[in-house]
């Protein structure tokens, strides 16, 4: 049994008030699979890169036990590249460059040994490509988590609504929940979205934490207040990866396990922002993660 | 022993997307004392109104066991009046009218029987007036909570900094914490503010809950996600009143009791926004409050 993570594997160049990077490895599937690897050891990536993506870059993933057989390498082409500059408050950013490159006509390949997929994380991509992946799995996974963004609501809403019908969990941010539902109240937004397909909705609120909804219950996960946010890139993907990785580890899907998965996802995301790119999450110890989760417990526990 | 609450007692006229009111009773001390009255029965108000403030308006406070001997009634003058219109998202509002009236030269009187003050809530007012109240108490209260706002940071920062040295707890919102400290990170902002006088800082984040800081610890209280926010007026004052009322009831000041006080304050505030003005918080039962607090427990509890 395995956890398949599909999404971009890419290069980023990032500027923050604290400094700037050259091209470094990024992409939703990179962040999510690294995060998930701390919980589960049968992780398989589906993605595409150009021949500028080095064997040493792939080795980093393999060293985390991540299977990259589904990562296509297109000779003579270039990897997806994004460059952005964060403002002083780190909550807003300007995209400087987006080069789709190999991602422009990405046709995901599911290797035969990926057909044991039990957990599927559909990272932010064209909804059509996300659908294609579900269609190419012979058996419907036990849990499908979909990440998407406002961009697809703007230009591919019909496709997105079709994809939504096929998944169990949707992760979006608060503005996107409002856009998708047409409701300002997140409670009303969640009620509407939960009629569109997903059984669970996660609304990510950045520095304000995240909300988990099912039809009956709501859980509010805090974000760890941080003295320094060094680079927010990939925090959402890291959160999603930690979330599904934890669920794959515990193996039972229910609201209580989802709550814990949110906390583990948030803990991983809180590491992610401490350094540029994947620098921090590529090298965590179990002890660091356990300590961080204890900080979340202390942050939000009270006894009435 | 008593809890003194000083602040505006006023009339408001409120417009929201759900409707509008005529002049209704409002004011920081009104909301805070009503909220506190559900926890503690020795509450005394210090404030000033004009002769337009009716005996029936005062009776509402007295019926909650609130002592109004310190509420001056200025004959021939008018009560403070504020009118505002909320936008569709309820997070922003336009002030339409502010008439200071009796509040313009408010000189707080502390009746002799108020000198047993153990808990003092300084509602949002000129920092000089807040200082005056502290100065007129013969014994320093066990706990002084100060509420203030960006307006005083803009026009009376020196006075505010003086007042800050005299208090134990400061409640402000996140933008105000950033303004007061010059730090964007709320962790850094809190560290700075905790050197200015208060031992505890509460950062109110509206629909995102509230953070409590002391020198060592952080607690994150969630806000209850609500389907309808009918009228946000007074929610912050209601929160502060519930907070200090709960602490007065338990009688011991420590971080754990403060955490619970935040939850009770948040619960009261979640009622406040359900109807116009004080309509909802004037008439709560213990059972309603207990049930609401249980919703907060369920909202934020997890077992890792």
TrEMBL record, chains A, B:
InterPro entries: Carboh/pur_kinase_PfkB_CS, PfkB_dom, Ribokinase-like. It comes from the Bacteria. The keyword Kinase applies. Residues 20-279 form the Carbohydrate kinase PfkB domain. GO terms for molecular function: kinase activity. It holds the Pfam family PfkB. This is Sugar kinase. It comes from Pedobacter yulinensis.
């Amino acid at each position: 049994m395995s956890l398949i993570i599909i999404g971009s594997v890419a290069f980023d160049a990032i500027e923050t008030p604290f400094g700037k990077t050259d091209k470094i490895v990024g992409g939703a599937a990179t962040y999510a699979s690294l995060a998930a690897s701390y919980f589960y050891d049968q992780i398989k990536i589906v993605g595409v890169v150009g021949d500028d993506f080095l064997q040493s870059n792939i080795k980093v993933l393999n060293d985390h036990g991540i299977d990259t057989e589904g990562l296509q390498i297109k000779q003579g082409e270039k990897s997806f590249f994004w460059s952005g500059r964060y403002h002083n408050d780190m909550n807003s950013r300007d995209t400087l460059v987006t080069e789709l490159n190999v991602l422009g006509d990405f046709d995901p390949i599911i290797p035969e040994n990926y057909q044991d997929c039990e957990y599927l994380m559909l990272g932010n991509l064209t909804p059509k490509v996300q659908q294609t992946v579900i269609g190419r799995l012979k058996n419907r996974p036990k849990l499908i988590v979909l990440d998407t963004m406002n961009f697809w609501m703007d230009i591919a809403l019909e496709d997105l609504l079709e994809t939504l019908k096929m998944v169990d969990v949707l992760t979006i941010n608060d503005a996107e929940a409002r856009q998708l539902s047409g409701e300002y109240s997140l409670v009303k937004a969640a009620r509407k979205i939960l009629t569109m397909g997903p059984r669970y909705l996660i609304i990510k609120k950045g520095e304000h934490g995240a909300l988990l909804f099912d039809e009956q219950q709501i859980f509010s996960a805090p974000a760890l207040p941080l003295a320094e946010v060094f680079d927010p890139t990939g925090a959402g993907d890291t959160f999603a990866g930690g979330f599904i990785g934890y669920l794959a580890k515990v193996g039972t899907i229910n609201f209580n396990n989802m709550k814990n998965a949110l906390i583990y996802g948030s803990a991983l995301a809180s590491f992610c922002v401490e350094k540029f790119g994947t620098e921090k999450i590529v090298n965590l110890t179990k002890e660091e993660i356990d300590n961080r989760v204890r900080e979340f417990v202390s942050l939000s526990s009270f006894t009435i």
